[in-house]
Structure formats: C-alpha cells, structure tokens
Task: inverse folding
C-alpha cells in the first residue's frame, strides 16, 4: 500500500512539473502573396536584392512568438522583417543617416506600415542608432553566399529535396607513353587527397552563425531624398494616366530599345510628408506604392 502511494505521488509530481517546450524548427519559406497594411506583397527569391527606404523598429517586443518561418522572436537578437524576401535571409543594413552598418537575419514578414522597407528588432535598431518608435533612411543588401547556404541547408515544405541517383562511373584505363625525342618528361604531379577537399566543400556549404555577431561597421553618412513611387509601366500613356490620378510625374528609365516608365512624387521634406503621400496613393486605390531614398 505504501509503495502504491509513493508511485502515485511520483506520477502526480511528474504531471505538475512543467515540460520544456519543443524547440522550433527553422524552415526555408517563400510563401504566397498576401495583403498587409493595405499593400499587396509578392514574396520571391532574390539573392542579389539591393534597395533603399525607411527602416522601422518592430513594435512587438514579446519574447517567444513564432516568426513566419517557425523561428522564435527575440528582440535581443539581430533579426528583422521584410515583406517579400525569402526567409531566412542574411542582409546588410546601412543607416544612411549615420553610416553604421550591421548584418542581421531576416526571418519574418513585415513591417505592417506601408512605406517601410524593413522592420528591425530592438537590439538591431539600437546598434544602428535608431531610437524606439523611430525611423531611419537605410540601404539594404542581401548577402548572396550565406543566404543561399540557408536556402540549401534548411528544410522546406515548398521545395522538397529531390533525390538524384549518381550515374555509374566507368573505369578508365590509363597508359603512360614514352616522351618524344628531344623532350623532357615532367615530374608526376601530386594528387590532392580526398580528405583535404572535403573540408573545403563543407565550409562552403556551412550555415551562417545563429545568432549573428554584434559587429557594427562605420562609414560616411549618405542621407538622400525621400520619394514615393506608385508603379512602373512599359507604356508611357498608361504611366501618364496613373500620374494624373495622383498628381505625380512620369520618369523614363532603363537602357536599350524597351524603356520603362515610373510614376513618382516628391522629393519630400520629411518622413511625415512622405507618409501623407503614401496614404494618398493608397486612398486612390493604387496598392503598388514604395517609399524610396535617393
């Protein structure tokens, strides 16, 4: 009887003891088109993307929420949110207003406010010199090699791995021929051992560290002008029609025989004026709006 009571108490204690939460599985995600903050976004892989705009500090400071690709939100880490990039991706963000540069891991969707190119965790914003609730002009560049390593190394429900059987290798017979008259025979080369090549291949495919180190670079400040872009077109008449709706102008760009035309407003004196222009474009029913820095 005493033994049964002890066993029951042990089971009760085990049931009351909090069990560790399962560790989240980081996945490689692209995702479907979605609407956020009145703007439609179309995610895609872009390993060479480079863009300018305004960075915002992410408002959600709750530790433990899951990101769009299954990772844990931690405002103390160098992480960020982007509307269309593949997740996760490694990006270099430069604050154009003070020259500070930082590498961070983009692993979530956002920011919600239209006219913001990237959302930063509290720690990333602090190191870049952006106060809570503030914004800054930034240059964002995707780092190709570490971002591709993440795409290769993480599981993905959207792009399952394809097993490829190795083709049979035929045996090749080699025969050494005598040197031609008057020529000298070169000394045989040294073969590279296979165990020396393997570490190089493994290093090339290695995933970037997680969390990323807090290494801040410093360059010269390069602030620019704030512009709002409300669409690009291959036909000038369509661009002119769009510009007439919002009081914008048409600019031709691109080289070759097929120029393109973009509709723009600005430059604006400050962020508040640029945000009002973004809101006016959205109110006109034009969801493809960007706030740029040039």
Result:
């Amino acid at each position: 009887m005493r033994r049964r009571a002890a066993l029951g108490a042990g089971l009760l204690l085990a049931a009351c003891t909090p069990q560790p939460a399962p560790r989240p599985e980081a996945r490689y995600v692209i995702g479907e088109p979605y609407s956020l903050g009145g703007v439609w976004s179309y995610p895609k892989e872009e390993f060479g993307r480079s863009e300018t705009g305004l960075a915002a500090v992410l408002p959600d400071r709750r530790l433990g929420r899951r990101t769009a690709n299954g990772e844990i939100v931690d405002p103390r880490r160098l992480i960020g949110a982007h509307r269309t990039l593949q997740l996760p991706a490694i990006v270099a963000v430069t604050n154009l207003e003070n020259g500070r540069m930082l590498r961070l891991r983009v692993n979530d969707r956002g920011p919600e406010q239209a006219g913001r190119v990237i959302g930063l965790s509290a720690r990333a914003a602090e190191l870049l010199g952006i106060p809570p609730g503030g914004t800054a002009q930034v240059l964002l560049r995707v780092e190709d090699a570490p971002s591709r390593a993440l795409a290769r190394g993480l599981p993905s429900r959207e792009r399952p791995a394809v097993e490829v059987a190795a083709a049979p290798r035929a045996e090749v017979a080699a025969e050494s021929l005598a040197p031609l008259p008057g020529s000298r025979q070169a000394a045989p080369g040294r073969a590279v051992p296979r165990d020396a090549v393997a570490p190089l291949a493994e290093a090339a495919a290695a995933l970037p560290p997680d969390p990323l180190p807090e290494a801040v670079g410093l360059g010269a400040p390069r602030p620019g002008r704030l512009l709002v872009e409300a669409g690009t077109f291959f036909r000038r008449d369509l661009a002119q029609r769009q510009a007439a709706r919002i009081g914008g102008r048409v600019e031709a760009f691109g080289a070759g025989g097929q120029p393109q035309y973009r509709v723009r407003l600005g430059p604006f004196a400050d962020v508040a004026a640029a945000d009002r222009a973004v809101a006016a474009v959205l109110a006109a029913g034009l969801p493809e709006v960007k706030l740029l820095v040039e």
Remarks:
- The longest helix spans residues 2-16.
- The CA atoms of residues 23 and 71 lie 9 Å apart.
- The chain has a mean pLDDT of 83.
